[in-house]
Inverse folding.
């Protein structure tokens, strides 16, 4: 190993220790209080970890690394004993020190990205002490059970489902893994919103969920928040705002998907998608501007995890996939529009990716046809989400979303017909 690389790795370990130590020293606050470990000590710990890995390589023995870690650990144990004798009980600083040492070792072993990620996560966890303790104090037994149920459907059920299509060709479009993944998305978006509301409060949490949810599945946001509005009708306006934000985010997400696969198609659809998204954002601003001024902080939220509606939506999704496939097969090129609209009812990502690939070959689907089909699919998706709000949400939420649905849909259709030639 050349000298430059060696210095680079030791320098990275020094910076990691400095970062964690900076947080620890800042967290103590009181300048008169004696620190167990601060900037200098943690910086040295990063160097210790890197030096231990370096020594192990020179001596060609893992015992050297173990011995250095044991000696350092003994000092940390002694430090904890002294601290605990002064009734300052807590192992956070000591464990942070061990993590810093191991991150330093990872730097020498050239796992720099992993070491930096560990340092950032460690610093974040140390900095969010108050917020995390407040969050835990707000949890109920229902929240714990809901988290376990969500973990089961995500970590146990999803991995064992076959990731292959079933059915008689050419109708073999049903994939259990993909369908259940949508169920996880629907449940996860609603669950994420609940967590953010717990951490940030109802106002900020709901809006942020709309933005983040739109990047994953605006349909999931719509379904989850429509169900939520039945339980908390007074939240109709912030829920409506979050839904509209997720819809606007959806148009930007589709444009990004197209850009990855087919830049020529992006040049065709970017203006209609942008105008439609801006119309949606304009109505979102209207909801935000005229949102009720009453405080939402005292509204009690129950955990939103409910598998029933998510599974029902997964079954509908599978049915629409079959209908879309049938239209595409039996109506020829003219069926591209119809199949796009039908596919857009369930999954906008799938039809967008499909048309982006097909339009790469002008003899298959022209850019104009593909562009209009994607915009029409987006409009169909928007209309379906509006219907979901009308049927599953509270009456107040339905009245708020109806104008936004109409404005967004009309904007999409007109811009597709006018700008895409």
């Amino acid at each position: 190993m050349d000298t430059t690389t060696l210095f680079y790795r030791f320098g990275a370990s020094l910076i990691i220790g400095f970062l964690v130590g900076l947080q620890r020293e800042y967290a103590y606050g009181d300048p008169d209080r004696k620190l167990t470990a601060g900037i200098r000590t943690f910086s040295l710990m990063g160097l210790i970890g890197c030096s231990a890995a370096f020594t192990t390589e020179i001596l060609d023995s893992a015992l050297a690394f173990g011995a250095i870690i044991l000696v350092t650990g003994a000092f940390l144990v002694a430090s904890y004993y002294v601290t605990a004798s002064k009734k300052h009980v807590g192992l956070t600083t000591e464990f942070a020190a061990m993590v810093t040492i191991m991150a330093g070792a990872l730097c020498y072993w050239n796992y720099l990205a992993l070491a930096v990620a560990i340092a950032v996560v460690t610093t974040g966890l140390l900095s969010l002490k108050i917020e995390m303790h407040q969050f835990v104090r707000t949890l109920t037994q229902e929240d714990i059970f809901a988290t376990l149920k969500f973990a089961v459907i995500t970590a146990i059920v999803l991995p064992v489902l076959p990731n292959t299509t079933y059915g008689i060709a050419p109708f073999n479009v049903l994939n259990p893994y993909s369908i259940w993944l949508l169920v996880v998305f629907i449940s996860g978006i609603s669950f994420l919103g609940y967590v953010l509301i717990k951490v940030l409060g109802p106002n900020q949490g709901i809006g942020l969920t709309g933005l983040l949810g739109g990047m994953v599945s605006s349909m999931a946001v719509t379904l989850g928040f429509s169900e939520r509005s039945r339980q908390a009708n007074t939240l109709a306006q912030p829920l409506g705002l979050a839904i509209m934000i997720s819809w606007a985010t959806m148009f930007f997400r589709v444009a990004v998907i197209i850009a990855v696969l087919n830049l020529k198609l992006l040049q065709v659809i970017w203006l209609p998608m942008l105008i439609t998204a801006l119309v949606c954002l304009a109505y979102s601003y209207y909801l935000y501007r005229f949102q009720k001024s009453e405080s939402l902080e005292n509204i009690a939220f129950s955990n939103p995890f409910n598998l029933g509606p998510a599974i029902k939506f997964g079954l509908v999704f599978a049915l629409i996939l079959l209908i879309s496939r049938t239209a595409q097969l039996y109506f020829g090129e003219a069926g591209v529009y119809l199949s796009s609209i039908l596919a857009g009812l369930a999954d906008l990502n799938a039809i967008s990716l499909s048309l982006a690939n097909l339009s790469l070959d002008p003899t298959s689907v022209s850019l104009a046809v593909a562009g209009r089909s994607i915009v029409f699919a987006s409009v169909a998706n928007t209309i379906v989400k509006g219907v979901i709000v009308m049927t599953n949400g509270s009456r107040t939420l339905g009245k708020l979303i109806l104008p936004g649905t109409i404005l967004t849909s009309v904007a999409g259709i007109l811009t597709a017909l006018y700008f895409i030639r």
Observations:
- Residues 3-127 form one domain.
